[in-house]
Write a structure and sequence with these properties.
Helices cover 41% and strands 17% of the residues. It contains 13 helices and 14 strands. Strands 3-2-1-4-5-6-11 form a seven-stranded parallel β-sheet, sandwiched between helices. Strands 12-9-14 form a three-stranded mixed β-sheet. Strands 7-10 form a two-stranded parallel sheet. Helix 1 (28-38) crosses helix 7 (228-240), helix 3 runs parallel beside helix 4 and helix 4 (104-124) packs parallel to helix 5. It is globular and about 55 Å long.
Length: 359
């Protein structure tokens, strides 16, 4: 158990890694994690792996971290790990968006086949002592029969039928198998809720930037988020400390989807349940927002997780609540109300007056 609660910058006693390999460094989380680890003088070497190089500004921030252009689906990743005597692997490259991955087939290949090859390489490398997986709370699914809170021991009421959620569930299964074969390796699974913030780009950040935001008619999902900086702090802590186990990672508090849309100054338009799929396909096809079916289900039913284990065992308390994280995203992206404050206030007054007359 961790010695105390922390914001992620003060660490309990533990064994610092010597050589860390981070996958997915062309994306926000992987690249910025590599940058944080490279800034730690106690870490000898940081390798950042991806199929494409990070954007120029991110590469600059990565400092002394070494970018290795490699595909984890290729068995040659084993040579990278053994050649550098990697002792800590942070697998942060799981993709949730088929559009940015070259389609669903390519996404599944990179997520599942890539992870299998990475684990096979780690299994053969005696130097590996710590494995960290960036997973997702999407493994719990989204269903009208969901509990108020999911804890780490719970299973979904309806198993994910496809997409990112199914990939993540399969990957966690492979990682459990790896842990049984290599009991000497400390394995940490981080199930992150949806990220939000001024710099990270996700399906959800794109969704709230739409001028008119589609919602499911008759539903108002409970949404739990995590600020991008809290996400990076958790990954850094997991990479530098021995904290094995499965942890839900999310901010305190929830927002109703309607509240979030209002805070972003947007207009919600209710779409009948039967039209949700076609609307998602239209937005995907027009490259507006890369909605997958499971993400549409999330916007229908929502999802909230218990973070007691994160605070008590992992020793981390997020700095931002869900509402604070969302407001920081709105400020950072300089989102502007579609109608403007005066017109929204006027519409509110009209609705309230009508309600009084009806009573």
């Amino acid at each position: 158990m961790a010695s105390s609660r922390t914001d992620g910058r003060t660490s309990p006693p533990g064994t610092k890694p010597s050589v860390v390999l981070v996958t997915g460094v062309s994306k926000f989380l992987g690249g910025n994690l590599a940058a944080r680890l490279a800034a730690d003088p106690d870490i000898d070497r940081v390798l950042g792996v991806d199929t494409v190089p990070p954007p120029r500004d991110l590469l600059r921030r990565m400092g002394r971290a070494e970018f290795v252009r490699a595909d984890i689906r290729n068995p040659l990743i084993a040579k990278v790990i053994s050649g550098a005597a990697v002792d800590t692997v942070v697998h942060a490259s799981l993709s949730s968006t088929p559009g940015s991955s070259g389609g669903r087939t390519a996404m599944k290949e990179m997520n599942v086949i890539g992870t299998m090859q990475l684990l096979a390489a780690c299994q053969k490398a005696p130097s590996v002592r710590r494995m960290v997986l960036k997973s997702t709370t999407a493994v719990y699914g989204s269903s009208p029969r969901d509990p108020a809170l999911f804890d780490e021991a719970m299973t979904p009421k309806e198993l994910p039928s496809g997409g990112y959620a199914k990939d993540a569930a399969e990957i966690e299964g492979y990682l459990r198998g790896f842990g049984r074969r290599r009991p000497d390796v400390s394995v940490t699974v981080l199930r992150f809720s949806n990220f939000i913030g001024p710099r990270i780009d996700t399906v959800l950040t794109g969704y709230f930037m739409l001028p008119v935001v589609p919602t499911v008619l008759g539903y108002d999902a409970r949404v739990q988020l995590l600020h991008e900086e809290d996400g990076l702090a958790v990954l850094e802590r997991a990479a530098t400390q021995e904290l094995p186990g499965v942890y839900n990672v999310a901010a305190d508090g929830v927002l109703l989807l309607s509240q979030a849309i209002r805070r972003a100054g947007k207009i919600a338009i209710g779409v009948p349940s039967a039209a949700v799929g076609p609307v998602g396909r239209i937005l995907r096809g027009a490259r507006v927002v890369d909605f997958s079916p499971e993400q549409m289900r999330f916007l229908n039913f929502g999802r909230v997780v218990d973070t007691a284990r994160l605070k008590e065992d992992f020793g981390f308390a997020p700095r931002w609540t869900t509402a604070q994280a969302f407001d920081d995203y709105v400020r950072g992206r300089a989102l502007r109300p579609v109608l403007g404050a005066e017109r929204l206030a006027s519409a509110e007054r009209g609705v309230l007056s009508l309600a009084r007359l009806l009573h």
